[in-house]
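Batch job 17 of 40 flagged for manual review because the log was empty.
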Amino acid sequence: MMQSNSFLLYGANGYSGELIARYAKQYELEPILAGRRKEIIAPLAGKLGLPYRVFDVDDTTALLAALREVKVVMNAAGPFQFTARQMIEACLQTGTHYLDINGDIAVFEMIKRYDEAAKKAGIMLLPGAGFDVVPTDCLALHLKKLLPDAVSLQLAFASVGGGLSHGTATTMANKIGEGGAARKNGKIIRQSLGKKGMWVDFGVKKLFVMSIPWGDISTAYFTTGIPDIESYTGISRKVYYILKVQPLFNWLLRTNFVRNGLKKKINSRPAGPSDEQRNKSISLVWGQVSNATGEIVKARLSGPEVYTLTAYSALLIIQKVLTGNFSAGYQTPASAYGENLILEVPGVQWR
């Protein structure tokens, strides 16, 4: 029997998935843990006292059976280019709401194409329910409301004291050598990674940032309609200048030899930041909009460490959907729940 507080958590064996599972009780939610590897899922389920299912997203019969048990699925199994499409197409058949913690522009754009089908099925498709892209999406909408005629948007984020999970690092390895992206005149354009660099005052401190192909290149346009969008992340200036010569070697970086070597190195490291590291880390977000006359408005916020924020924001959105608070079709976090959604995450504040 379907429980009103249950949801399917696919990829529970991953770093972010496990955090979502661990924090679910704080939101009075009971996830059904799911993934491909029973040897990892079963012990985790036993430890947390939760039910579990073992299946691959390419096993359509098993996937449909699991989705029929719940109203909502949270896909935490990245890289999402390999899992999102199968799960969304199954959700359309079962009438299950689809959420994920994706940050890949191409995946957002792919999911957007299912908007009409989702509306007909009466379900919501909301990718980017974690740090990718809840805080930046909410900040983008906040700035749009402050300057309604904005034509340019810049967003930047940084983590102070944090680290990367295997999933995030693997996604980055799969994209290495692909370059960057921005939005110009409403169109996504390809450009070199780190094409631009600048100093940003995050309130807590000033940090150097460089342009990257963050999910907001897709989502912030949907949320705000602002035609020119750039996204940035904090980085050391030394690494930034090294990346300036990366285009000369992109052909090599795209080879399986290099990418598989990076993944092997990633897997030899801890799964992600320790609880102690996360407790000591903070996330910082900054944004700026300008209009055609040159008027500029800025805003910034701070919050808990990025993976902690991901777990809280994901669970917050799941809770809303389970209580009937959703909009059918493709949505972004801020288009569905407004600019103040981020303020419902513990520890977040405007700077």
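Reviewer: the log was empty due to a logging misconfiguration, but the result itself is present. Residues 164-177 have pLDDT under 50 and may be disordered. Unflagging and moving on to job 18.
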